[in-house]
C-alpha cells in the first residue's frame, strides 16, 4: 500500500476476488483469515458491497458474488470488442472466413465481436450475441483447453458440424489476460479446416491478448 491508495477499497476488492475464486462462497471467519483482518472489518466490507449488489449472503451466512458484478461485466464487453476488432478484421480478410471473439458467460460461450470477410462470395453468418455450450464448438472447446492448465500452451481447436451443419470451426484461447476468459476463432463452410488456418488463428489470439493487456 502507498500513500495514494485506499486500504478500505483495497480490502473490498480483495474480498470480491476471493469470492470470485470460489463456487461455494466464504464465511466471515474464512474471509477474516484470508484477509488477515478481524471479523468486524469483514462485516463492514460485506455490508458496503451488499448495498451495491456486488455481494450477497445466503441463508447460511456464506458470502457470494452478487448480480451487480454481472452488470459491471456487461459494460466490459464493448471495450473488449473494440480492442479485438483490428486483429479480427485482419484474420477474416486473410482467411476469407468469419472471425469472432468469444467470451465465457456463465456456462456458455458468448460471441461478443464478429467480423465477416469483404471479398468472399459466401461465408457463414455468425452474429454477435450468439450463445452455445462451452462443450460444443471450437470457440468453447478452446476456452476449456486453457482451463486444463497443462505445461504445454494450448493450440488451435478444430471442429466440424457441431454448431451448424456443413460448417467447420477453428479457435485458440486468449492467454495471459487477467479477468478475461475467451477465445478467437473462425467459422467457414468447409468439410475440413485448411492447414494454414490453425497457426493464423493462434497468432490472432495472441494479438487480441496483447491488445487487452
TrEMBL record:
The Swiss-Prot or TrEMBL record annotates one GO molecular function as: DNA-binding transcription factor activity
Q: Does the keyword Translocase apply?
A: no
Domain IclR-ED, chain residue ranges per copy: 68-213
Q: Which UniProt key words apply to this protein?
A: DNA-binding, Transcription, Transcription regulation
* InterPro entries (UniProt xref): ArsR-like_HTH, GAF-like_dom_sf, HTH_MetabolicPath_Reg, Tscrpt_reg_IclR_C, Tscrpt_reg_IclR_N, WH-like_DNA-bd_sf, WH_DNA-bd_sf
Q: Which residues form the HTH iclR-type domain?
A: 6-67
GO terms under biological process: negative regulation of DNA-templated transcription
Domain of life, source organism: Bacteria
Q: Do the record's keywords include Glycoprotein?
A: no
Output this protein's name. Helix-turn-helix domain-containing protein
Q: Which organism is it from?
A: Streptomyces adustus
